[in-house]
Amino acid sequence: MRTIPAELGARYEAEGWWTRETMGDLLARGLEAAPGAAFRVHSDVRPWAGTFRDVEETARRLAGGLRERGVGPGDVVAFQLPNWMEAAAVFWASAFLGAVVVPIVHFYGRKEVGYILDAVKPRVFVTAERFGRMEYDPALSAGVPVVGVVGRDFDALLAAEPMAGVLAADPAGPALIAFTSGTTRDPKGVVHSHQTLGFETRQLAELFPPDRGEQLTAAPVGHFIGMVNAFLIPVLDGAPVNLADVWDPARVLRLMAEEGLTVGGGATYYMTSLIDHPDFAPAHLRHMKYAGLGGSSVPAAVTRRLAGLGITVFRSYGSTEHPSITGSGHAAPEDKRLYTDGAARAGVEIRLDDDGEILSRGPDLCLGYTDPALTERAFDADGWYRTGDIGELDEDGYLTITDRKADIIIRGGENISALEVEDVLLGMPGVAEVAVVSVPDDRLGERAAAVVRPRAAGPEPTLERIRAHLEEVGLARQKWPEELHLRDDFPRTASGKVQKFLLRRDIAVHSE
Questions:
Q1: 10 Å Cβ neighbour count for 380?
Q2: Could you tell me if 310 and 290 are in contact, meaning their C-beta atoms sit under 8 angstroms apart?
Q3: Cα distance between residue 313 and residue 194, in whole Å
Q4: Cβ contacts of residue 150 below 8 Å, gap of 6+?
Q5: Domains recognised in the chain with CATH numbers
Q6: Distance from the first to the final alpha carbon of the chain
Q7: What's the pLDDT tens digit per position in 230-282?
Q8: Alpha-helix residue ranges (DSSP H) falling in 276-398
Q9: CA distance 158 to 160
Q10: pLDDT tens, 452-503?
Q11: Element (H or E) spanning 192, and its range?
């Protein structure tokens, strides 16, 4: 883990940003205060309706069953589940046990899941028998001592009696490992403590507009922000939980009209897919009062369009490593909300280096990565994190992201590692060299394009052949390139490095 300067830790504790409360303590307190709050899953596959008390009983029975199997503080509990009640039960049970929880995005394929399980060596793995393209593969979890499969034998893990109380854990120790794609060939394991995760939860809860309405969470709970929005903030607020396991704009619009649910933002795609849908009507706008946008590129054209519909738009900037770096409140000046990524959040410090790269530190900054080499590269001895993003600060301290040094594509809020996709494609017949780059997308912000230099001999790469190869390898479909461009050679630096910015520019010119 990274070194946290003693003076920073002391300041975070003195300000009350870091407390001695564990995630188990936070959840137990919130659930006790609002046992009757509604918890609903809107799903064609596994619908569910109950209360916080009902989910907590399942979670505590699961905690009891896992404790009987020797699971306790510091052990790793991984799960790959859609937005179902059982995902909340596993998350809450892990917190009560003082265990380290590892949520895995439900659409990750064999390649990503196998890597994650090998990296964290969990004591427990809970998954679904089948959901969409995801299907339980016993070989992936063959080395895990305790495995539960929802739809098959999950209930066998539940003890007859719920576990009482919360097991003690170190508030400064690991509570969560969130895996995210980025500049590396495999997902990066980002480690958060009870203190960093607790601060992030409290901070976001305080920033939510008081009249935001009853929120629907459709962002995958395997993602950091989906998990916080689904399983932590509502418990802190005593607010109902509404989950959707599939983002279906038509169904979401029906839920808004028939049940009064609201959608408050996320990646831009969530908002644009609603207002562009043929079922969208002006009456839906009463359930779309706010749009907090982040997690992907936020085009000014989108913020202006939403504002023109009377929606209060505000932007934010962060990452799994540092979830809330900057943001604008819903009451900030409109030009700041629409055209910048906001000012530094409470306790957060930001600065730009000589190249304009954004460096940040704050109470919600992670402990580091599961890979010590990544930790050493990303953090310095003074506690600063190199974000890999380029930005500008205006005279009022508002940040605007202008470019990205990190080799990632952000498609609808999902990070895609260009290196990971390139590595897989290089193993394909007919491919001599490949560069994966981002291209603009009106709905998703960005999408991936593969630029390929074919081999002189061999089958010519086509988009269909590329997709068949990636399917065989087991790479998540969200990472598949959606465009293919063939080139005889690439623009290069004097040292031979491919100049991706020139490839992006060339694609844009030929797309006009």
A1: 14
A2: no
A3: 31
A4: 46, 81, 84, 86, 126, 127, 128, 129
A5: 1-239 (3.40.50.980), 408-511 (3.30.300.30)
A6: 47
A7: 999 999 999 999 999 999 999 999 999 999 999 988 888 788 889 989 999 99
A8: 300-308, 334-339, 372-378
A9: 7
A10: 989 877 789 999 999 999 999 999 999 999 999 999 888 876 556 688 888 9
A11: strand 188-193
